[in-house]
Amino acid sequence: MDKTAHFPLNQIPAQSLSLRLARSSIPMNHRPEWRIDKLNPVHDLVIPLTGHGFYRIGEEEFTLEPGEAMLIRAYERFHGWHGGAPGLYTGVAQHFTLDLFGRGDVIAQMRLRRKVRLSRWDTLRPLAQLYRETTPRGGTSLPQHHQFMVILLSFLEDAFIDWNNGDAEPESQDQLSLHIMFVASRLSTDPLGAGVEEALASVPYNEVYFRRAFRERIGMTPQKFRELKRMEFAISRLDMGLSVKEVAAELGYSDPYFFSRMFKRHIGEPPSRYRAKGTARMTHEEMG
């Protein structure tokens, strides 16, 4: 199973997540005498680049070194000190919040490993270095938001264990947002199966209320969202060389013309034209 394809946050619309950087990133340049004992009102992601540090959070004690990243949750007291090796302990730390649909702290809803070895470190290392070196003074910037979102999502994908949804009140906005994300994720990952009624069957809310809340947060009804995801799946199949008729049949459309109308409604052009453009592009690349 492809971990990236099935990580829940990868299956929801980009506008569903709202990242706020509480301050500019903190370039770490810690000498051997460095010590810290602190509590932050927001989450803190720590990414070392050289050297290593020791940390204690509650009863946990561990080291942190390049290639790893650590999350310190909001209002967690932590202690940190230099790892003892010659030279500086460097890296970058960022204070942040991440909201789901602007209404709930998504980090608080997750069970996460405290620290992880980043599986994409070869790609992330130069990004983390750039992020550290281009920290703006006195504020945050749009490039900084984009860069940190890439780093944060990579960490969350490696650290994610499960959702903390067992003890919360069903009517809380955090829980409602979480269930909307569950449904959106299921409709995204199973375009050939899970119909809307099936996806909504286990939702602990009045159906009319939930459908309205889904539309408010996602921007379309569950049915329209499912149709869009099915047409995006159709694009991937057309790109693999299947005919329009074959893709229509795979999606369960007995009438290819009806499938073509649905495809055009969501994608903006008929599948035959989309496929022809793809074929022409591939031919041009092969000739070039």
UniProtKB/TrEMBL annotation:
UniProt domain HTH araC/xylS-type: residue ranges: 177-277
Single GO term (MF): DNA-binding transcription factor activity
Pfam families on file: HTH_18
UniProt keyword terms in alphabetical order: DNA-binding, Transcription, Transcription regulation
Identification of the protein by name: AraC family transcriptional regulator
